[in-house]
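Appendix B: complex inputs.
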Amino acid sequence: MRVDGSAYRTVWADRGSGAVRIIDQRHLPFSFEIETLRDVASVAAAIRDMHVRGAGCIGATAGYGMWLAACESGGSQEALHRLADSLVATRPTATNLAWAVGRQLTRLAGAPADDWCRVALAEAEAIADEDVEWCRRIGEHGLRLLRSVADSKPPGEPLNILTHCNAGWLAFVDHGSATAPIYAAHRAGIPIHVWVDETRPRNQGARLTAWELAGEGVPHTVVADNAGGHLMQRGMVDLVITGTDRTTYTGDVANKIGTYLKALAAHDNAIPFYVALPSSTFDWQTADGIADIPIEERSGDELGFVEGLTDGGMVAEVAINNPGSPTANPAFDVTPARLVAGLITERGICPASEAGIAGLFPESGKSESH
Amino acid sequence: MRVDGSAYRTVWADRGSGAVRIIDQRHLPFSFEIETLRDVASVAAAIRDMHVRGAGCIGATAGYGMWLAACESGGSQEALHRLADSLVATRPTATNLAWAVGRQLTRLAGAPADDWCRVALAEAEAIADEDVEWCRRIGEHGLRLLRSVADSKPPGEPLNILTHCNAGWLAFVDHGSATAPIYAAHRAGIPIHVWVDETRPRNQGARLTAWELAGEGVPHTVVADNAGGHLMQRGMVDLVITGTDRTTYTGDVANKIGTYLKALAAHDNAIPFYVALPSSTFDWQTADGIADIPIEERSGDELGFVEGLTDGGMVAEVAINNPGSPTANPAFDVTPARLVAGLITERGICPASEAGIAGLFPESGKSESH
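Resulting structure:
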């Protein structure tokens, strides 16, 4: 998507220099920095230290990391696997990371060693392009939904969408999941306005989603996470769209902490609450999201310290809580399927139910067991 | 309540020096500073610039301000009213402010001018003492509720209470409203733990409520506003208690933005949601809180800038949002009566309904109209 008028992906190959380039997201929104990664160790560090984040973006970066691994390994399977392991170890719970590395290993296992470098680059591009294509389709399906809601409004009134956290193009390779329908609608000329939840404690909404939307020229307003219920009560929200970190095959949605509260408010005010996801995010093993999805407890420092710009334009961190008071920081919550109006996937929109999901993804075999 | 082991009120008279003393709340929690106010102009500045905040605390401070006004006026009704007006003008929407000033003017109208200084001090003490007594009674009634919930838990398990914003003693003269039952239960030896909502955008929970609870030695944990729904879903909250800025005679509760979201989550998880208030907070004119209570829209800078301690221990402010992105900042929301389990008042606990409230406050005459 656009940054200062130019089109970017979050990660790409610089074929000329044989390096991987990424947007170093740690510095957003205060500065836009491109980082050049010339070896596997640098890619591993970039993933581990969260220069890149988001399932799709991490997966694609790992795919490109395996390109460098293939070139570095000198044709040695042992070296290749050692480098692959070093990438997987960076963020052990990131499903897409292990998946992308595994896909490259399988591809390279069937290729002559002197062709690895070229084959791995092609596979890395394929992984990234698929991510882009899935998000593009999510945008296409979501666009039809947004158009129908917009058509039901009085002429000239913008469609008001609320989103939580960053399920934007920065979390993927391009387009994003929750943002894909928004960008598609904006480009299609549908008047649109986005309420951006700040998304404490890491402020991904106020920092990343707002930055993304500004780059694309989409009208938006940052609000405290606390404000969404009030906005819905007063008729100022037409639709909620979020992303998800994991969705059960029954339609329970694990997503950034606070998502459940917005789903409750949407339900209480008869506002449709949609979740956008590539199907790689479905958990085909878990039926009861509330009982069985483990919720990561992260450092309380994320809550107690905030980074921002000083008067003098320097980036600085300040401690904001009562000194000495304990903090807790669960990173995700689970929104039960009953509160979700539908799931926007690359294949279309389906109800958040076992039957609805199996209807779009019959190969999952989930519909057969009942 | 206790600060570093010593008992304080938020505002009091220093009779020896003829001055008003307040806790200057602007510096909390990073430093505890007592401010001495020697004239009406200083009291007015302290109210206007939010050295003190909270309905009860502002009312009591204005009461003491009128003591200084009575002494300064030299027996002139004209001077007295001019000084009174200067106090009322500081925060025009604060009901308790105008009420306390009016009460003093009425009292002084019937007193000989050479006795004003003494009479006004006695009246100021009475206003403050009444605030303390009402909050103490809220604590007493709430204690019975908390004890009954605690008794239903397995022995040794603490009672987990979630609260939003600061309806603590800092907002009154002592005890607070939502915190009064908590302090009473803690002093009665009931094992208790408080989840403290950070309360964006002004962070009154993480700054003030956490500071208060630490001073009294009440176990507590600061969480992001987003976390409450998840905690309730996982059985980690037994009861929610908040304060209120205005409650209709039908039981709709206007309170700090985000309260409604917690009430929805409590309802969805069958957790009782209580609101504590002195009866002066009832709005006897308004029936429909959602339709008819105006919601103050405050500066977006409250959302965009955060104050905290730097590495070096200095207080500094940083800008935390995507530069240039617009912000909106509604300060309150309205929780409909249907989500409120009960109201804890100085007279007892009643259902959040017109009949329930009129039952405790028959002099309101509200029950007669139906």
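The CA atoms of residues 196 and 287 of chain B lie 31 Å apart.
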